[in-house]
Write a structure and sequence with these properties.
- The protein is built from twelve helices and no strands.
- By secondary structure, it is mostly helical.
- The relative contact order is 0.12.
Length: about 350
């Protein structure tokens, strides 16, 4: 944006400000990666809601976006959800070494989990590339499922590096390098499909939907591979899930203002608006409250109306058999080319201003 304001623009890779942003992103991702070595994946993933809250205030600071009441309400829900997540997450986090990771890879629950994930991925790829179903849910489901492999690999690599730094080297385990390759490949694939969704659909749909899908995927991955809910009682699991739900709703309300701004914009947009994309989300599969935009037609016409033109008097709904079918237009226009004259007299203006 700063580059666009310059009279002489340069390629963004030659802009020092752009490199500062990239550097900050790398530092943040290193911190996020390190967190998997110290906390359960089912806790790290939903706490990503703090990123959305921080982005809201940073956008107000740097991009001059307005913070509305629904944004603050969403932030409050996200903070409450984060508190519940931390309070009721697994307390005893075990850092796995190379031998324990090899053992976890061969457990029956994880093998079943991998098979189910691969089958779902195969179906999604078939729908996307062979059936050409370009829907936001398909892109984000692929991204979130691939991200579950990224979470498993990132936690494994982070744990083994942590043990190495503590003085017990894990560099001789081939699984360390295998997990590192899996982490890099799946991270790139995840970002690819997420970017495809961002390019084709409105961000107000992609951001909350991706957050929900990714969080659920990471929680399931943590349960299947690391058994992170083992040892927790029913109350702790229930309150943890409540924390996740509040985080989901909080992210929705934070993005709600952007949805309203997009709907109320007076600028002329291209026909391929976000509404068309949002309508591709099936209400039967996805909650209707996550639809970003709704088309609302005007019931009362604006301006003065004194008569109807011939084209306006044409029946709006017409049967296939011809023009003899009765329509609602028959109540306001006669069969002739003139307006209705009550009692055969002067023309009447119903709800219109006379001239």
């Amino acid at each position: 944006m700063k580059n666009a304001e310059k009279t002489t623009q340069v390629h963004y890779t030659k802009d020092p400000l752009w490199w500062i942003g990239i550097l900050l992103m790398v530092v943040g991702e290193i911190g996020n990666f390190s967190a998997y070595g110290f906390s359960p994946a089912s806790l790290v993933a939903p706490l990503g809601t703090t990123t959305v809250v921080a982005n809201m205030f940073l956008a107000a600071l740097f991009l001059k976006e307005k913070i509305k009441a629904e944004h603050l309400f969403g932030s409050a829900l996200a903070v409450i959800g984060a508190f519940l997540l931390i309070a009721f997450s697994a307390k005893n986090e075990k850092v796995l070494n190379g031998d324990e990771i090899n053992e976890a890879l061969t457990q029956l629950s994880f093998i079943i989990y991998i098979c189910v994930e691969l089958v779902i991925l195969g179906i999604l790829f078939f729908l996307l590339y062979f059936k050409e179903m370009k829907k936001v849910i398909i892109y984000l489901l692929i991204s979130s499922i691939v991200a579950s492999f990224t979470v498993i690999a990132a936690k494994a690599v982070s744990s083994m590096l942590q043990i190495t730094f503590d003085g017990f080297s894990q560099m001789s385990y081939p699984i360390l390098y295998i997990m590192l390759i899996v982490m890099v490949v799946t991270a790139i694939t995840q970002v690819k499909f997420l970017n495809e969704a961002m390019k084709a659909f409105d961000s107000t749909v992609v951001v909350p939907t991706n957050f929900v899908f990714f969080t659920i995927s990471a929680i399931v991955a943590g349960i299947a591979f690391y058994k992170e809910f083992w040892g927790m009682n029913a109350l702790e699991v229930f309150m943890f899930l409540i924390g996740c739900f509040l985080s989901f709703v909080g992210v929705y309300f934070i993005t709600l203002g952007k949805m309203s701004a997009a709907n109320n914009s007076d600028e002329v947009c291209e026909p391929s608006s976000s509404t068309e994309y949002v309508q591709q989300i099936s209400p039967g599969i996805f909650p209707s409250w996550l639809l970003a935009t709704v088309n609302v037609g005007e019931v009362q016409p604006k301006g003065e109306v004194t008569h109807l033109s011939d084209s306006d008097r044409a029946p709006f709904f017409q049967s296939k058999t011809g023009t003899d079918s009765f329509t609602s237009q028959d109540t306001i226009s006669s069969s002739t080319s003139s307006p209705v004259h009550p009692g055969g007299g002067a023309q009447a203006n119903y709800g219109a201003t006379g001239q």
